[in-house]
Structures are given as structure tokens and as C-alpha cells.
Design the sequence.
């Protein structure tokens, strides 16, 4: 299973409707509105890189109100026990 974090720049008037639309996409497991330069953070969990590419370019980037995306693909997930929590 691969995890990608997709950071979205969006028109503020569309953030709520985008959140609902993004959450409905198969492979999207979480959607957050966030502070900072980006407006939304989308977590995608799928089996392979091709599916990440398809979801980001064909389903996410084409939604009305999104002006740009930035995708981060996770290499490794750390358990709190690994880092002393």
C-alpha cells in the first residue's frame, strides 16, 4: 500500500464543496482543510504509483476551484514506539 499526501491550492469559496468531492474519490482516505500556503490536504492510499498518478491528474486536479497541486509520496511510516513517544 502506498500513501501520498496531496497539497491543494484552492479558491476559498470552493473549499467546503471541494472537501466533500475529494472525500468521495475512491482511494482518498482523508481530507483536511489546513493553514499555511496550501488550502487542503488529501491523503491517498492505493496499491501502486500509477493509481496515485491517475487519481491526482484525472480526478483531483480537474475539480473546479483547484488552482494547483503538490504531491508527496511517503517512503516509510514510523510507529510512535520507533521515535520514543
Sequence:
Amino acid at each position: 500500500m502506498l500513501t501520498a499526501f496531496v497539497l491543494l491550492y484552492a479558491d476559498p469559496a470552493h473549499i467546503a464543496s471541494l472537501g466533500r468531492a475529494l472525500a468521495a474519490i475512491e482511494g482518498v482516505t482523508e481530507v483536511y482543510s489546513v493553514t499555511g500556503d496550501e488550502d487542503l490536504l488529501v491523503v491517498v492510499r492505493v496499491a501502486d504509483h500509477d493509481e496515485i498518478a491517475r487519481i491526482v491528474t484525472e480526478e483531483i486536479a480537474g475539480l473546479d476551484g483547484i488552482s494547483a497541486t503538490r504531491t508527496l509520496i511517503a517512503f516509510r511510516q514510523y510507529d510512535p514506539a520507533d521515535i520514543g513517544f
Notes: Residues 79 and 85 are 9 Å apart (CA to CA). The chain has a mean pLDDT of 95. Strands lie at 2-10, 28-33, 40-46, 66-73. The first strand starts at residue 2 and ends at 10.
